[in-house]
Design brief:
With 332 residues, the protein is an alpha/beta fold. It has helices at residues 23-38, 53-61, 88-96, 107-121, 135-141, 154-159, 178-191, 205-218, 233-244, 279-290, 313-316; strands spanning 12-17, 43-46, 65-67, 78-81, 100-103, 125-129, 148-151, 168-172, 223-227, 248-252, 268-273, 296-301. It has three domains: 12-21 and 205-301, Cobalt-precorrin-4 Transmethylase, domain 1; 23-106 and 309-316, Rossmann fold (3-Layer(aba) Sandwich), CATH 3.40.50; 108-191, Cobalt-precorrin-4 Transmethylase, domain 1, CATH 3.40.1010.20.
Length: 332
């Protein structure tokens, strides 16, 4: 933790723009927020609604119960699927248990699921570029388990075996690093020249925009702080992008995790946040860094975002008036 008012060489704080909540996260948080208002509790959420411990703790304090599997949810209760998506088997289990399901899957993740289904129906063997064990990957692979193989590295791309090289397609996890994904995709295209590619890039707009923004910070800042939780894939990728661009970078959940030694001799710091990190965490870091010091704050804008996703019908009618927002601070 940084002692407030401790001497620092710091002169400038650069804030990445865009940063923080993406449209899918705003939607997922609002869904749980409204479910608490609309339905008699408790409200159960399968896995973390988004990968941020502050968001999860806030909802737990309000009575939301997070579970690993639906077997922990009583029959007939209200269950929310997280933003990362679920497999068809999970949906079938929920239906069999007569759960009231509210689906908070990010629409961009749903797009990847639909691509998997489409390629499977066309008879393609599907190569999913992603990280083993990630909830999004588990849900996507469940769409066509017998036809999907996971490819997590260039080595995997070089060694993966398929039944028919003429009938191969690839899709990607939405929260990957563009730089990490590119060599994997290039290897797949070289090995399978006729590989069928998605009609649009699967890496989501917010992931790409935040990676571009952090690279812009790295051109001017020697140190970059990425606000996000350890299990947030897109936040970890932001650290990697910053390091590749030549900066020192650290992932912190909040201001308490900043090591004062990182700041020694640093005059310009860049700050960004992952797509599931609330803006109040960034504000608190800025406040502590500026306390008792003459420090300029500059926002570095790389692209404007104006993306909004509709709510599912179960809660759409209960949406709050414009400007009231979700229960957690959301940067405008």
């Amino acid at each position: 933790m940084i002692p407030e008012g401790a001497p620092l060489a710091l002169r400038t704080i650069l804030l990445a723009a865009p940063r923080g909540f993406c449209a899918g996260v705003v939607r997922a948080i609002e869904i749980v927020d409204l479910a608490l208002d609309c339905f008699e509790g408790p409200v159960y959420v399968r896995r973390e609604i988004v990968h941020n411990r502050h968001v999860v703790r806030d909802f737990e304090a309000r009575g939301v119960r997070f579970v690993q599997e639906l077997g922990e949810v009583p029959d007939g209760a209200t269950a929310v699927f997280s933003a990362h998506g679920v497999s068809p088997q999970v949906r079938a289990d929920a239906a069999a248990r007569k759960l009231r399901v509210i689906d908070a899957t990010c629409p961009l993740v749903t797009k990847v699921h639909l691509e998997a289904v489409r390629f499977a129906k066309m008879g393609y063997e599907i190569l999913l570029v992603g990280h083993a064990g990630h909830e999004e990957v588990e849900g996507t692979m469940g769409e066509a388990a017998s036809q999907i193989q996971l490819v997590s590295s260039v080595a995997d791309a070089e060694s993966v075996e398929v039944r028919d090289p003429e009938r191969v397609a690839f899709i990607t996890q939405t929260t990957l690093s563009m730089e990490d994904t590119r060599p994997i995709v290039e290897a797949l295209k070289r090995r399978f020249p006729r590989v069928h590619v998605p009609t649009k890039d699967d890496i989501c707009y917010a992931t790409q925009n935040r990676q571009v923004a952090v690279r812009a910070l790295a051109k001017r800042a020697t140190l970059i702080l990425v606000v996000g939780s350890r299990n947030s894939s897109n936040s970890n990728r932001l650290v990697e992008e910053a390091v590749l661009a030549g900066a020192r970078a650290y992932l912190v959940d909040d201001v308490s995790e900043i090591d004062p030694a990182w700041l020694e001799g640093v005059e310009t710091i860049g700050i960004t946040s992952g797509a599931s990190a609330p803006e109040f965490l960034v504000n608190e870091i800025v406040r502590v860094l500026r306390a008792g010091r003459r420090v300029e704050v500059e926002e570095v804008l790389t692209v404007e975002e104006d993306v909004h996703f509709p709510l599912p019908p179960e809660v759409a009618g209960a949406r709050r008036p414009p400007g009231s927002g979700a229960s957690l601070p959301v940067r405008s």
